[in-house]
Specification:
Elements lengths: L1 H20 L3 H6 L5 E4 L5 E8 L2 E9 L31 E8 L2 E8 L4 E11 L2 E7 L6 E10 L6
Antiparallel strand pairs: 1-2, 1-8, 2-3, 4-5, 5-6, 6-7, 7-8
């Protein structure tokens, strides 16, 4: 009985919040500040991030230069796995096995198509428009940090 009461109160809270802010109950419940389309540091790609159950779903959705010199889409030719070298860069997830450790931080691995390697790292929300992406080499104590800027929020049907 107590469990049912908690569910009813939680549902009413989400509903009241959604009515007050003009959102559907499912949008209010599922919204995450990480969700959106993010412009990478050099401005050469967009990464779409959405929350999926207990991790971050993501993929490269746009490249400034999507094709090689022959006019064909760039592929993941430097990937360590030979079976994945022919896949197009657009569509590749780069935030791998992310686990949320706080409201503003996820840790996991970062895949870098430019060298075909993945690095231990994290993504940390600086504010609603900026995301810190940090990857570290496994052997050497070298880390690199990028700041990504939000291009847009996700539409409700994305």
């Amino acid at each position: 009985m107590r469990f049912a009461f908690i569910i009813v109160v939680t549902t009413l809270t989400v509903f009241c919040h959604s009515v007050a802010f003009g959102q559907s109950a499912s949008e209010a419940k599922m919204q995450s500040p990480f969700e959106g389309v993010w412009l990478t540091k050099n401005g050469d790609s967009h990464v779409k991030i959405s929350q999926c159950e207990k991790t971050l779903c993501n993929e490269i959705i746009w490249l400034k230069e999507p094709n090689d010199k022959k006019g064909k889409p760039h592929t993941d030719k430097l990937n360590k796995n030979p079976n994945e070298r022919g896949r197009p860069i657009i569509g590749i997830p780069i935030l791998l096995n992310m686990t949320q450790v706080s409201k503003t931080k996820w840790v996991g691995r970062l895949y870098k198509p430019r060298d075909g390697k993945s690095y231990k790292g994290h993504v940390r929300l600086i504010n609603a428009q900026k995301l810190e992406v940090k990857g570290c080499h496994a052997v050497f104590p070298i880390c690199k940090t990028q700041i990504w800027k939000k291009v847009r929020d996700l539409e409700s049907n994305e």
